[in-house]
Backbone:
């Protein structure tokens, strides 16, 4: 689907079409990210391995810098990523708990 610059939109219908296009692309990218998260838990050994504070901070720092480069509020990106990362960590912890070898 063709894209239209925000400033070129002449109606709310055109704005909504572009927002819907972007939402679809975001979902597709989150699906792609999820595939890597799904693989990550398989490579970890225990639920404790799911939460890696230095890595979380590294990711947050990178996305905030990218946001700032693009005149997007870094606080917005940080809030979104912390929510997403938190969900993914819970997902990994649950997967790791349910697949731990029984002794």
Residues:
């Amino acid at each position: 689907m063709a894209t239209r610059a925000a400033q070129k939109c002449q109606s709310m219908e055109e704005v909504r079409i572009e927002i819907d296009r972007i939402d679809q692309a975001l979902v597709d990218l989150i699906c792609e990210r999820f595939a890597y998260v799904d693989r990550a838990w398989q490579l970890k050994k225990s639920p404790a391995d799911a939460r890696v504070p230095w890595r979380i901070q590294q990711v947050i720092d990178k996305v905030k810098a990218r946001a700032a480069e693009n005149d997007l509020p870094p606080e917005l990106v940080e809030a979104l990523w912390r929510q997403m990362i938190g969900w993914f960590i819970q997902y990994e912890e649950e997967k790791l708990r349910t697949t731990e070898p029984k002794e």
Notes: The chain has one domain: 9-99. The longest helix spans residues 12-43.
